[in-house]
Amino acid sequence: MNNKIIGVTTGWLLRIINATSQLILIKLIVEVYNIEVYAIFAIIAGLWGWMQIVDFGYGSALINTIINGVNQDIKIALKMYKKYITMLVIILAILSILISTIFSGYVFKSIDIISENEKTFLLGIVLFVMGLSVIGSMGYKGFTSVDKAWVGNVLQIVAAAMALAWILMIKYWELSNTINAATMIIGYWFCMMIMSVIGILYFYSQNNKKTDSSEKESDNIGKIHERAKYFFMMSLVASASVQSDVLIGSILLNKNDIAYYSYVSKVYALIYMAFTSITQVLWPHLAEILNSKDVLKYNKLLKNYLIMSAAAGIVGVVIFEYFKREIISFVFTGGEMNVTRYTFTLFGIYTVIRVVTEFFAASIGAFDKLKYSMLVISCQAIVSISCSYFATKLLGLDGLIIGALMGYLMTSFWMFPYKVYVIFR
């Protein structure tokens, strides 16, 4: 229990530092450069969710194997870390070159302050650095699987502190605007990457003694590959459903609207990130409860989570709505931002829906119902992308939020809770 409390506490601290550093970064970019440079950062930050797929599902698959597997399978899972990391880095390097060469023009379609070659170079470097961060985060996930999530959180807190220090330092560099902006963006993600690599090396060194090189591979080793396949597909469709907003916005919105959307979404992400830290730490506990089908424990956990999430979500939304002029003026001079009066309210509703859905989604994932999760998220991706595209063309920035909200309400918001009900019935 102590590890869980420390895990949640450090998880919340990590989210606060991350959110603070990003808000300070936004303010510095707009003050030192201009809104178009921030639009570049917003687009690149939007790619972070997509980059979660570059571990091809093995991060989550190895966690589930360590939590649910027998002794021999656990040893095999720990041994596989080194093998898969090497393979993934090679694949990442190839993909970064191909994607940046082919898609940089589309990704930065609304940006005209950098040349096509600069777009390709910037996108390629950032994708590679982000990808290394994701691969390294397998170490963070590994600590979660052995009930030491706080270790991964502390390492990420150090990374966030390094990134914040980098942001503050870069302001005083005497470089041209384009070079300075590119250095800032790449350096921010580089700080994250360094600590994630240290994290996975530390995890492997701590658990390497648990492996036995003479151990024969279990007949169940195929389960790891099978789980990885489903986690990869879930991650892919999840990115399509939740992370496609910035990409759709980069095509249909102007650079100002992209910047406004990114800023408001990061403000409301404070609420969502606080609760994802809880579900991350509770994952092993949820797996135990669901596998034992302990209805009383699950209902107690669910009740506490829903009360806490609903209360914090609603209070947060009310506070953000009341102080929205101050929130806007923190970055944009004069407290003026070209959004409608419904923008903050729509983001608030969307955030509360996501927070509530997250617990049920984590429950299904912990119970290893991967096929069902993939089905739900696939449906959400189709609905979300379709609604976001057409709503954005009709309503602009607000349409982007409405499309994402409809994706949740029409699929995962009710489909995940229904499956939990069926499991316990």
Which structural traits does this protein have?
425 residues, mainly alpha
Helix-strand blueprint:
Elements: H1 2-32, H2 35-50, H3 58-68, H4 71-107, H5 116-145, H6 149-170, H7 177-207, H8 221-242, H9 244-252, H10 255-292, H11 295-322, H12 324-329, H13 343-366, H14 370-395, H15 397-424
Helix pairs in contact: 1-6, 1-10, 2-9, 2-10, 3-4, 3-5, 3-8, 4-5, 5-6, 5-7, 6-7, 8-14, 9-14, 10-11, 10-13, 11-13, 13-15, 14-15
Structure in words:
The protein has helices at 2-32, 35-50, 58-68, 71-107, 116-145, 149-170, 177-207, 221-242, 244-252, 255-292, 295-322, 324-329, 343-366, 370-395, 397-424. The model has no long low-confidence stretch (mean pLDDT 76). With 425 residues, it is mainly alpha-helical. The radius of gyration is 21 Å and the shape is globular. α10 packs parallel to α13 (343-366).
